[in-house]
Design a protein that fits this description.
The chain has one domain: Na+/H+ antiporter like fold, CATH 1.20.1530. Helix content is about 80%, strand content about 0%. The protein contains 13 helices and no strands. α4 packs antiparallel against α5, α4 crosses α11 and α7 runs antiparallel to α8. The protein is globular.
């Protein structure tokens, strides 16, 4: 598997500027749609019921990246540096666009889900660049020491450019969406569900088209990527559930934190990877792109599957109070 993934790292995928523009726009629309469901009162939850919010926040921004770091160290003989960095990048991009729907389907705490999405999305503007740079460089430092070959260089990523890109793609659409929901509530109530559904479908179509344009590579390497993403996504769900269980949170809250941790913003990861100012064209990022692209498809399948199972397991009223 390692040799095949090494070949994948050096592949430049066929994805032109027009496709990147559409991907950027679709991500902006997705985040605008997410923000339409966010109310300013959701931020009050942090002060009124801080424990679940803080634990959910830590699960996404600390526990998952740390668990991912340990996983890529464990798999160091099976995966390449590029694939490992792709996994670290995904773990640094919280706030998946369908987590609120999945929380509702799974009978979880939807209010907490929306609050976590709001807080995580705004925090990602700063913490996504920080987490990727921190854990990515930590991994490369470990890899250099373990192999002692001196071939790997410190991760040279323009953190300011990444911050600027994340702010444009997340911060601005979210602010506009929240202002729209506040100032135009009637219009918001009419467009929110159709817009959210459309944006999710649009994103999936773009990912599928990106893979279809690289069909030969997809057929060659997807079997390896599927296994890696399956393990990584499973770890994300498990770490969310374990973290919330350790702190003895209510069952509906555990479900919410599990889903919020397992559903990542893979679209953001893809947009960052396709930005030459952040990841120059001479960097071998083929493995990173495949990880981010397949995660965008797989976490919908796994998340909906988990939510469907939980939807059939009732939570006693006494358990949620």
């Amino acid at each position: 598997m390692y040799e095949s993934l090494k070949e994948l790292d050096n592949i430049r995928l066929n994805f032109n500027n027009g496709g990147l523009l559409v991907l950027n726009i679709s991500l902006g629309v997705i985040m605008f749609g997410v923000a339409l469901g966010i109310k300013f009162k959701n931020f009050k939850t942090l002060f009124m019921k801080p424990k679940p919010v803080i634990i959910g926040f830590l699960s996404q921004f600390l526990i998952l990246p740390a668990a991912t770091f340990l996983l890529v160290i464990l798999l160091k003989n099976q995966i390449t540096v590029g694939v490992a960095l792709g996994m670290i990048l995904i773990s640094a991009c919280p706030g998946g666009n369908i987590s609120n729907f999945m929380s509702s389907l799974s009978k979880a705490n939807v209010e907490l889900s929306i609050s976590l999405t709001a807080i995580a999305t705004m925090s990602a503007v700063i913490l996504t660049p920080f987490n990727f740079a921190f854990w990515g460089n930590l991994y490369i430092s470990y890899f250099q020491h373990a192999n002692a070959n001196g071939l790997l260089q410190p991760l040279q990523i323009d953190s300011f450019e990444m911050f600027k890109t994340v702010f444009i793609l997340l911060g601005i659409p979210v602010i506009l969406g929240m202002l729209t929901a506040w100032k135009l509530p009637k219009i918001t109530s009419k467009i929110i569900k159709p817009l959210q559904t459309f944006s999710i479908i649009l994103f999936m179509i773009i990912v599928v088209l990106a893979f279809s344009k690289n069909y030969n590579y997809f057929i060659l390497y997807i079997k390896y990527i599927m296994i890696i993403v399956l393990i990584h996504n499973g770890l994300a769900f498990f770490s969310g559930y374990l973290t919330s269980s350790i702190f003895k949170l209510q069952p509906d809250v555990r479900r919410t934190i599990t889903i919020e941790t397992g559903i990542q913003n893979s679209g953001l990861g893809l947009v960052l990877l396709f930005n030459d100012k952040i990841f120059p064209s001479d960097l071998p990022i083929g493995g990173m792109l495949f990880i981010a692209g397949w995660w965008g498809i797989w976490h919908i399948i796994s998340g909906l599957s988990l939510a469907t199972v939980w939807s059939r397991i009732p939570i006693k009223k006494s358990q949620t109070h």
